[in-house]
Design a protein that fits this description.
Elements lengths: L17 H11 L4 E3 L4 H9 L6 E2 L14 H19 L4 E11 L2 E2 L6 H11 L3 E11 L5 E11 L5 H10 L21 E3 L2 H5 L3 H10 L5 H6 L4
Parallel strand pairs: 1-2, 1-3
Antiparallel strand pairs: 3-4, 3-5, 5-6, 6-7
Amino acid sequence: MATRKPDMRKPDKPGRPAAAATATGAAARRAPLILASASPRRLALLRQIGLEPDLVEPAAIDETPKAKERPADYARRVATDKAAAVHARHPDAYVLAADTVVAVGRRILPKPDDPDTARRCLALLSGRRHRVIGAVVALAPDGRGAARLVTTRIRFKRLGEAELEAYLESGEWRGKAGGYAVQGRAAAFIPWIEGSYPNVVGLPLAETLTLLRGLGFECRGFERRGFEP
């Protein structure tokens, strides 16, 4: 009677079957995600929901509004141009781009870099409603793309002169669309908001996640936590 030789192969590591190991290897080889933005707020928002871009690379495009360009058209165009510029340099990656516009009627408010411009923006917003329009564009390595426009409505209380001066002195307005930061001191000016809050900060998160998933990007942070927005 033949003697059976013992199996000298190393046993599989407990808790990690072969199928899981294969899936892990495939995920590790996924195409990178590039955030086409210079905004630290957009990066912070992605990290807040467990998404860490492999690279942050601003597009550095001309963002000057065209004559009579509507706020939504402007936001969509700028986000699209940002995504296209970075995707041209990284065609094998997923590219995510966005633009945020503060609008009063058809008027696009600037991102002030001086106190006088900030004062004019805040005076215009004081005591009235306005819209924050966020455009998100995602491009996949195979060339497919997806886009979404998200609108949030906000009402400012009427600002007193002392409040306005104190906010201008804070410098928080610098480089912010419309001259304010909803996630900062300006939160005290906003008694009413309708729609996506992260859209006002700089990136509508639920919509962004939906775009990326629709293009095949694996949002692994959510799969590990079992989270489904």
